[in-house]
Fold:
Amino acid sequence: MARTLKIFSGSSNPELARLTAEHLGIPLSRSYVASFPNGETRVRIEENVRGLDVFLVQSVCAPVDKNLVQLLIMMDAVRRASADRITAVIPYFGYARQEKKTAGREPISAKLVANLLAVAGADRILPMTRPGPAIEGFFDIPVDHLRAAGLLGERVKDLALDNAVVGSPDAGGVARAEDFSRRLGGSDLFVVFKRRDTPDNVTPLHMVGDVKGRVAIIIDDIISTGKSLITAADSLLEGGAKEVHACAVHADFTEDVVKVLESSRLKSILVTDTIPIPNQRPLDSKIHVCSTARIFAETIDRIHRHESVSALFS
Amino acid sequence: MARTLKIFSGSSNPELARLTAEHLGIPLSRSYVASFPNGETRVRIEENVRGLDVFLVQSVCAPVDKNLVQLLIMMDAVRRASADRITAVIPYFGYARQEKKTAGREPISAKLVANLLAVAGADRILPMTRPGPAIEGFFDIPVDHLRAAGLLGERVKDLALDNAVVGSPDAGGVARAEDFSRRLGGSDLFVVFKRRDTPDNVTPLHMVGDVKGRVAIIIDDIISTGKSLITAADSLLEGGAKEVHACAVHADFTEDVVKVLESSRLKSILVTDTIPIPNQRPLDSKIHVCSTARIFAETIDRIHRHESVSALFS
Amino acid sequence: MARTLKIFSGSSNPELARLTAEHLGIPLSRSYVASFPNGETRVRIEENVRGLDVFLVQSVCAPVDKNLVQLLIMMDAVRRASADRITAVIPYFGYARQEKKTAGREPISAKLVANLLAVAGADRILPMTRPGPAIEGFFDIPVDHLRAAGLLGERVKDLALDNAVVGSPDAGGVARAEDFSRRLGGSDLFVVFKRRDTPDNVTPLHMVGDVKGRVAIIIDDIISTGKSLITAADSLLEGGAKEVHACAVHADFTEDVVKVLESSRLKSILVTDTIPIPNQRPLDSKIHVCSTARIFAETIDRIHRHESVSALFS
Amino acid sequence: MARTLKIFSGSSNPELARLTAEHLGIPLSRSYVASFPNGETRVRIEENVRGLDVFLVQSVCAPVDKNLVQLLIMMDAVRRASADRITAVIPYFGYARQEKKTAGREPISAKLVANLLAVAGADRILPMTRPGPAIEGFFDIPVDHLRAAGLLGERVKDLALDNAVVGSPDAGGVARAEDFSRRLGGSDLFVVFKRRDTPDNVTPLHMVGDVKGRVAIIIDDIISTGKSLITAADSLLEGGAKEVHACAVHADFTEDVVKVLESSRLKSILVTDTIPIPNQRPLDSKIHVCSTARIFAETIDRIHRHESVSALFS
Amino acid sequence: MARTLKIFSGSSNPELARLTAEHLGIPLSRSYVASFPNGETRVRIEENVRGLDVFLVQSVCAPVDKNLVQLLIMMDAVRRASADRITAVIPYFGYARQEKKTAGREPISAKLVANLLAVAGADRILPMTRPGPAIEGFFDIPVDHLRAAGLLGERVKDLALDNAVVGSPDAGGVARAEDFSRRLGGSDLFVVFKRRDTPDNVTPLHMVGDVKGRVAIIIDDIISTGKSLITAADSLLEGGAKEVHACAVHADFTEDVVKVLESSRLKSILVTDTIPIPNQRPLDSKIHVCSTARIFAETIDRIHRHESVSALFS
Amino acid sequence: MARTLKIFSGSSNPELARLTAEHLGIPLSRSYVASFPNGETRVRIEENVRGLDVFLVQSVCAPVDKNLVQLLIMMDAVRRASADRITAVIPYFGYARQEKKTAGREPISAKLVANLLAVAGADRILPMTRPGPAIEGFFDIPVDHLRAAGLLGERVKDLALDNAVVGSPDAGGVARAEDFSRRLGGSDLFVVFKRRDTPDNVTPLHMVGDVKGRVAIIIDDIISTGKSLITAADSLLEGGAKEVHACAVHADFTEDVVKVLESSRLKSILVTDTIPIPNQRPLDSKIHVCSTARIFAETIDRIHRHESVSALFS
Structure:
């Protein structure tokens, strides 16, 4: 434990890395991360890491393959430079949703990514993910899952929404909504069912649960195109909800989603900073971002000092 | 493909193995599987397997550790005897529910079992499991998941239950119920939410969905103690359901469950034969068992002849 | 070495684990080890183990598969909880006798078990085994073999048996008897040869060595059914031995063996506590148990403090 | 060998894949390769591949990380779909130049890529590379290197350039130029030495060899920015060369290179189609492309039929 | 099985390889195996092996390291040349006796050699070894042990030695002698015990068993310096034996052993050709060599045709 | 870092190991390294190494296989004795030149050796090699390459050779010569091209570069038979060079090379002590040896204390 702790940042979310280091009271360590003219990633670690406890912060968000390979290459450099232990801190674990086959002859890309991280030299993974089975079990190395549910739950509680009802925009997220409901003291639940014809086109089927005259909060994991969120909001408003809010961990926004959300019937959208959000939001933006930096900092600190991490999330 | 196909059975579900071989039109191959006086499993493969395509049928049901280790030892023997390819046919994949940590410092036993199977020499896994993420991605070797949903759906359709409503006895099974609803042509859905204080004691919270005056079918994956099923049935009857049926893939019955189910308010319980069911059922038993042998036989045949397996389940 | 040492016990030999910890002057660490209603093992490590030097004590004795899988699952939990180093302390290494094929198409279960332990996360193995070739070489991780020969030799010396002759109840154990003879200062040797038709039925062939009028001590590794021991004792008494004693490391007793031994013509039977012995022995029992706890404690202490272990056994 | 051969193409060089299949007299097999809205690669193999001999054609050229990850994901899908053997056909092996550290704490990205390919399921690699040590030895799986030197040598010979002198634009390529000289019947050699201050900025030092009044042919492996090529050509013309041609295997062109080359003092530039070249070239373009499809087709055919590949290149 | 079978020979025992191929009715395949001027082994496989079933015959006898590395390098070449399956046929498995530690901080060289063979690409091992536990279990790949006991037993039976008594020159070989005794129809047994002070200097302790006036046959595994054999013969003659013969599998003769044996009091010495024996024996040599080529040929043939090998040795 | 550092020497270059330890101010640790009568290597580590940072010094020079296997066996012993970290210090990495295939069906012996070192337990490799791509990338464990170029460059500078011209005796070494030229302040360059008909017979083709009236220094990596060096010197003298010197890292001398070099037209030959040089040199020998011990000592010290190694060579 006498080993020094060093944090390096990839290029995908430098602001979160910076904030995390700030919370830890140490500077980000220096590395040169760029591209050769032909687009190949080029890395040089600019500080000695021999025998140290190294944390690499990189969100595997868009451009997802570039950010993934950059992380792998940084790990290769750090491993060959004789770091004692390498922890890949992955605020957003891209490809996590491709965790099973939905039809024959598909990849399980999330498992592939797990294997790539392991073969490139990760000794430990520190992702922020939903409480599902897949990712942690895809690894044989230790994984310390961080949860944003507590953080988001506190924020929602602060809104003092009486008579709120929480729910899931699809069948797969019901357990997450149920968990969230417990954090709010046991609020009622709703589920929006939909038929998923293709992975992109979703058609609402019907909504179960009583939302009439109440404030509905849609709980989700990732907002990407925002389509399913907006469809669910419409269902809820048609079902008589007074107003609809959304709350999700990852803002994996495709182009124009900020504009789409701002002009939607949603009253507010709460997300975290695991993925940087474009800055062109209006002053009175509906999108509220709460930072996960303190959670990452506390977890890294505990890992480094060999203290219990689960104690943080109990 | 000129390789001969041979099927061996462990001691956990010989009847299903026998039926599967019968469907394939071949005899079960001979092996000696017993215990030494001190309880250690003892195996001898009694037919030449050099260069052959070997399938080992073993449900990892109770006594779960004995059946698991027996399967591992059989694979070791077959591998050392130079089989060309070993497929572990696992109608019931024990430990599958321990697929994630629910608290700090827990194992992920399902991943451990996956690793044990791989290190013991499995070239391919053929389990019958629910369409969740974990198991398939826990392996790097090919996994051909079999689904019983089609089989069970046909049986339920045959009952010609008008006005049925299907649902899940807990939040985690909603996606499965939604899938089942589509197989029945889009019937309505319900969900029974519960607070899960400890893994054993479950307390119902509330039920959402409209079941009044309708036939409710609870869709589940595994029936073990039957507690959550019976609690859910009570909720549904209190909610006005006309009658309640249950439908699950695996009958992982603990002692006395047969008696408990027979005397419950459930109208009928439909399960498969992935786990042998004790024969002491009454003549007019509520428990109906449909065999998965034909599905296993067809899948094994396609795997052996290098034909598409996903075509079977589309 | 600043790392703290923690010892956890599986459920197979808690008394030996407790005694070992006592010798080390530390408490056994807390873990929850139980079974789910369907028989699956369930584990939770109840103390932080991050960065620690963890020793898991578990005899792989009957019920052998349950105890083996429990050990594997405990290791999985400890590894995922980020222990620095995991040592599997295995007082009795079940399946050790299945270390080679005796016929075609048999498993080598001892090697399989070695592979299972390695894949589940063991960094080091600490078994008590006979000085044979197999087990240590089955591993690529360090193995610190403990020997009980010194302990047992001291006890036998204490009996001050003049004119003793030591020997093996079968051809495979002659080297062990020769080693024991040297510990007693070079006593004479005998060997009982037998024809081994099947692993269970043994037929004595003939005995070589001069035992007339002397005290014969049969040296063995494991007592299981006791059959070969009693047959050998009969041969020795027929050959003129004055009295016959037995001395073995592991008491892997099958049911009723205690009664069989108590009523045999053997004068005394000396074993260790690597396997717990049923307590229904008479007050004047012929079976004497000497504890290995001090040996385990000293070895664990030396491993933890990076001191030579071989020095203990030279 | 009764196994059918199937060829799939990634999205990086479909034309070369198509031509290769055409030479083999078989159609390209169907796969769906696209991106999810958030940029994650999405793959579905649309033909049964069980037990087949599958070749995946993908140049790891710009966008290099996207093309690399796409290849890995395709392999994952094909492996899980139970292909008998997977050969990654990699006409251009991106990151190959990052095959050693040039300073401390750098990655060896080429080895990392080799490991990624192996872990994703490649059974065999079929790259077109220069005759250097690294790539082949980075793998433990078989690698069949294809060489374009014979193809390019034939083309240059066809030009019937009397009195030609061939050489290398840098010290590292001298062995390649010497090899090429032998293919032309032993023509004279030159070398342009340069000081390499940074990987991007090259400063010519001096040129050795007699080029006065002769046709100079610069032999290179990859043309990327074209800078070193144009600097070398200037040196040669200053040294009295009558005219200067360039010949390289891979056209890993960065933006605008086509324009730069067309307007340079080089008389002609000969490359292959391992990387697709933008089509905006003028009718009388100086850039001549010769296809490697026949070489790939012949090699794939020999690999599939278990015939000697080295015989092709001797 | 349509795959062709090819046999290559290393340089350690070309005569046995030649005879084996002759028995199989095929020619030895061509390879170039030599040394560079600096002593490094240099190999080129001179026939196509793609997709073939390749057997490499190499005894790991003196010079043991050179022969071992040569075998590893040949396997590397054959693997990279895309053989379908590589079987290392190892008539004499050097380092096999270093199968366990005899003191602290020793290697287990036999396990190391097993790992080296596996990492170099062996798919299967075909050694001729004694029926001990270690070697087979050191591998996870299939091992087909050949036994010479049947062959040697036949030869001894042919001598029609009435009243023979067989035995072991040390405690470790008693099981082997017992097995041999059964092959001769249950002849009596003797054991020569010795104190083994250092691995080289052996001091006889005492002999048990009745040899007076009888023909004694010493059964051993390897004859190396011959010291223990000659000492045992002396003990037997002193004990009244009429004449003493020796029978061993491997003639791992150190220098001058031939001369020492010829001039000893042993009446005859029977060995096999797993290691080539120097040809300077007298016409009436006491050393008789029986060839194992037919056993190797039959086993290779069965392995290649996927027939049972254990049937050969039952 | 509190771990103690221990250095052990194999038998290939004890003088360099001794000097290295001397520079570090510690004694060489004791180990017993010898041969059994049958030639098998026999090792016992004679000091406790539990938890220590162990460095094994062994040049893999002639007898190359014996020295290689000895190193592997020493590592096995040290690993099983629970060393914390094992660094293989390999002043001369034999087989390094077999780093690629030069024809079909050849091994890549250098990669094989890398795999053998890794499987035997090396945690880190410390070779002295030329700045080529292969060796470092053949490993996934950290490799700290030492370079002798700086050491040799200083020695050559000390000679104050005005008007020197440096160059390579073959095409493959041009980059090394260019690097050396920069170390001398940018001296001019020459290249001797040759046709390499077989690995042993080299025929000079022609020399490029201006050497007339100047002192020529041939830069090479390894001197083995010395043939190519002497041929190159002849070419240079014919080309008008005033005198010719040679400078190489490794003196991998075959028999008689010392005599051949002493009687050659070379003015001096500068090498290092990575391989011991026979002592029969004359008093006024042309062969000058400079020791690398200080470089090895400084590097080992930095590795042990977790300081930057690249800083040493910048």
Observations:
- The two ends of chain E are 25 Å apart (CA to CA).
- Residues 12 and 74 of chain E are 13 Å apart (CA to CA).
- Chain E has a mean pLDDT of 91.
